[in-house]
Records
---
Amino acid sequence: QVQLVESGGGLVQAGGSLRLSCKASGSIFSINTMGWYRQTPEKQRELVASITSGGSTNSADSVKGRFTISRDNAKNTVYLQMNSLKPEDTAVYYCNADIKRYGGSAYLTYWGQGTQVTVSS
């Protein structure tokens, strides 16, 4: 079994900061790309940022310059540092990871359970 567990969400005022963490655990042989997505009742789930095992990153235009994704490969953990938060960043944030399990032949995508981020104006 593989699990992704997020933490760090909460309520913050506009202009504030939060740091999300997501740790992968279980029978993990290798992790390729890890990422953060977000979803609101009005919008489909959208990519916030992603990072490869080599450290290359990609992020949505709406968060560039404010959010930073990073990872600790030794801990199988991905982080999302969110600064200068805006009310429109309010959403449920999900992490995902492409993981090959021991004995597996391919990378499969796993998702966390989601963590709520609420930014008040």
---
Amino acid sequence: QVQLVESGGGLMQAGGSLRLSCAASGSIFSINAMGWYRQAPGKQRELVATITSGGSPNYADSVRGRFTISRDNAKNTVYLQMNSLKPEDTAVYYCNAEVMTSRYYGMDYWGKGTLVTVSS
């Protein structure tokens, strides 16, 4: 069993910053890609950013230049530094990880989400 637990969400004014964290725990052999997705009210879940096990990031166009994804492999943790926040960044942010529970078996896991609200 693997758990992903997010933290760091909250209420922030436009232009401010927040840092999200997501720690993976449980029966982990290794973790491949990790990432952040978000879902705004009435909208589909969308990719925000992902990062490979080697540290290569990928960003949605809407956050590139404002958000930075990073990870600490020793802690099985991924971070999302969000700067210059906009009201349209308001959403529930979900952590995702491709977790190998053995050398030959892995699957995607999701956190329960953390709410980020940006006021204008």
---
Amino acid sequence: QLVESGGGLVQPGGSLRLSCTASGFTLGYYVIGWFRQAPGKEREEVGCIGPNDGGRGRIQSVKGRFTFSQDYAENTAYLQMNSLEPEDSAVYYCAAGLPECSARAMDYWGKGTLVNVSS
């Protein structure tokens, strides 16, 4: 099971840190993907972190603003989001799977947490 937290309402330019905590399996063995879906839009891959990947964004617009990390002891992954823009508003999902950073490779999915960037 994966549970996301940390979403909410933030003003443009603000920051949020999303958490993704796993139970029943060891998150560090998997590729951890972060995805988002805005109303009326398709889901998109935000980025991943994994055993062989130190964490990188998959969307050009988040590079330099979003950082991926994980705490093995806490069995938790994090998505630090800085300089948030209204276009970042979406439901954010974390997922875990192997062997690659893609939705089709993910075996476990969280239920999502809503991020709303608005003044």
---
Amino acid sequence: QVQLVESGGGLVQAGGSLQLSCVASGRIFGINDMAWYRQAPGSQRELVATITRGGSPDYTDSVKGRFTISRDSAKKTVWLQMSSLKPDDTGVYYCNADISTGWQLRKVFWGEGTQVTVSS
């Protein structure tokens, strides 16, 4: 089975930085798009950033210029570098990956999340 494990969350003051990591393990033939989502208390989960297999990133408007998504396919790892953090960035951050687990077998997997809290 495939697992995604996030790390790097924590408590930080507004204006600070954090780097989140997500490592995939298990029966993996290949990893396609990877992404980070977040969910604030009382809100729906929202897409924060995506990165294609080829390394092309995309961001939701609210984090453009502040967050950077990157990946290392050989290490089966995706990172989210977050800078100039704001209290509105508070939430549980989830890693998401579209993974090929066999011949013509693809599935989207989720991590369990890591808490990010930004104090004002």
